[in-house]
Amino acid sequence: MTTIEEKIIPYIPGDGVGQEIWQASQNVFDAAITKAYNGEKKIVWQEILAGEKSFNETGEWLPEATLDAIHAAKIAIKGPLTTPVGGGIRSINVTLRQKLDLFACVRPVRYFDGVPSPVKEPEKTDMVIFRENTEDVYAGIEFAIDDPKTKKIIDFLQNELDVTNIRFPETSGIGIKPISKEGSQRLVYAAIEYAIKQGRKSVTLVHKGNIMKFTEGGFKSWGYEVAENSFSDATFTMRQFDDIKATDGLKTAQNALKAAKEAGKVIINDVIADNFLQQILLYPERYDVVATTNLNGDYISDALAAQVGGIGISPGANINYHTGYAIFEATHGTAPDIAGLGKANPSSLLLSGVMMFEYLGWQEAADLITSAIETALINKQVTSDFASQLNDATLLTTQEFGDHLITLLNK
Ligand code: ATP
């Protein structure tokens, strides 16, 4: 008798286009699993509430029961959520990440043949971004211009800490940027471990440490420290390169770098964030895995997504590699302008599902979905976001696109 492996996965369809992209995606997920495992593996989908739908049904944007379900299953998948209006939670996405301490926001960015892109050689972009998810100015420690606490903080800075360079102390808002050694190192550790496991060539630490020395600069040096202390056999850092150069000269350092590459070691380097935004446009082929702080990661993820065809196709995952908790999610917003019209591209959610199956070790199902998407895009059988930019495309609705993928993966 064959035993069936059943996995309970909580899901949040999401607001706006969420419902339609979820429906199309769930059908594709189920079809891929049936095809890959012949009924021996199965997902039991468990809907959980968050966002507008939740607020309308329960009066709460993020009910405790939702968090309990994610705790129990350890993983979940979700569509986009409306940002709550009026008090309480600032952002459901940020709250979920904080409550579950999902410290790594992982965004693979690759090009699919056939996708319209604004750059000449989009196929040169193939990176995986690890964005720190819990610290930085995103921690939400902010005080408004008219908040009495702001005056207290400014007085404290000026009177106790001898700060003299707040340009307009009477009319400032204040934001605090905490970046810790612990937070930086767990993120960089995850990025390096991923690079080693996936046979990637380099990990680039992206920071603005030339200006913010003790936060962004700290991220860079703590990152190098992780590589040198925890992965000394499998990595070679550009900080080691500089040390060798200082003691034994450039030639010896270059030879050491060459030897490390030949030995298949992961090269750890760093780039200043503004330069990095130029580099990814000019020389995307030079970068592989990227580890960065929260705000830099926000900008870089969107810039890179645009390079390979944009928002409808970029997947994401928020992961705590220590506890195993993970939420896989479409990276775009609720797209209210096209909601309910069958125009939304479900690929961002579908590819987030691919990441989820890979995380579960269900590689066969993941591969079936990826190759069906590749085929549909090459054949220009696409949703309206791409159809409007391509000649001779076959325009499909969200649901038709999902159904078409099912036909393709069953071939
Ligand atoms: P929110 O307020 O939830 O962030 P938004 O509309 O401001 O929503 P996005 O949802 O990210 O931000 O949308 C930005 C643009 O990209 C919109 O024009 C939207 O229609 C388009 N877009 C977003 N997601 C998709 C998708 N899955 N397929 C096609 N177009 C999309």
Radius of gyration: 23 Å
Task: Please report the total strand number as a whole number.
Answer: 15
Helix content: 40-55%
Q: What's the SSE pattern?
A: EHEHHEHEEEHEHEHEHHEHEHEEHHEHEH
Largest sheet: 11 strands, mixed
Indicate the structural class: alpha/beta
Report the total helices: 15
Mean pLDDT score, rounded? 95
Which term fits the overall shape? globular
Tell me the β content. Answer: 15-25%
Describe the protein.
This is Isocitrate dehydrogenase [NADP]. Pfam families: Iso_dh (PF00180). InterPro entries: IsoCit/isopropylmalate_DH_CS, Isocitrate_DH_NADP_dimer_prok, IsoPropMal-DH-like_dom. Keywords: Glyoxylate bypass, Magnesium, Manganese, Metal-binding, NADP, Oxidoreductase, Tricarboxylic acid cycle. This protein is α/β, with parallel strands linked by helices and 411 residues long. It contains 15 helices and 15 strands. It has helices at residues 18-37, 51-58, 64-73, 92-99, 148-159, 181-197, 216-230, 238-248, 250-262, 273-282, 294-307, 347-360, 363-378, 384-387, 398-409, and strands at residues 5-12, 41-47, 75-78, 104-110, 126-132, 142-143, 174-175, 202-207, 235-237, 266-272, 289-292, 315-319, 326-330, 381-382, 394-395. The chain starts with a strand and ends with a helix. The relative contact order is 0.17. The mean pLDDT is 95. Bound molecules: adenosine-5'-triphosphate. The site of adenosine-5'-triphosphate has 15 residues, from loops.
